[in-house]
Amino acid sequence: MTGLIGVYEKLAGLYENLPLPAGQILGVATAVGLGRVRPAPLRGSRALQRATGAAAIAAGCALNAWALLERRRRTSGRFELEQPESLVTTGPYALSRHPMYVGWWFIHLGAGLLVGSAWVAATMPAATLVEHLGVLHEEHVLERGFPDEFAQYRRRVPRYLGLPRRSPRRPTS
């Protein structure tokens, strides 16, 4: 019985540190559910939709895994996703301040394409907007926890997508 409790505790600890944004999970479930109740099939090649959807899901999972591994790599003690020891600015965090959310966008889009449902065109923006409010809160927490470092990071790296901004070069005399 003790072994079973240990396994449960490890699984519970793993779940606590999984980046499962409620907005995207609800959005994917809503898109799939609406697709069953009121189908809205995408036009075009189903084979291409399935291949593109699978590729988007794989890309989203890979981005999430890379970001999670980078966060763990930068943690010296017990890993807690919601309580970072330091501001992680390397790996995918050098490209996006919130790469796990971007990864979930790919997963959401991919799920819609995979099942061939046009509902994803409505559920993805709605889910992303809801999550954006949480992201603003997360950034406020990071600002308080790492004031100078986060200010520099924010100037250099886009919130979601885009090219990282370079610091202006100072003229040499």
TrEMBL record:
- Give the membrane topology: Multi-pass membrane protein
The highest taxon in the source lineage is Bacteria
Presence of keyword ATP-binding: no
Which Pfam families does the record match to this protein? PEMT (PF04191)
Q: Which InterPro entries match?
A: Metal_cation-efflux_comp, Phopholipid_MeTrfase
Localization per record: Endomembrane system
Name the residues that span the membrane. Answer: 51-69, 102-122
What does the UniProt keyword field contain? Membrane, Transmembrane, Transmembrane helix
Question: Its principal location?
Answer: membrane
The record's PANTHER family line, in alphabetical order, gives: BLL3993 PROTEIN
Q: What is this protein called?
A: Isoprenylcysteine carboxylmethyltransferase family protein
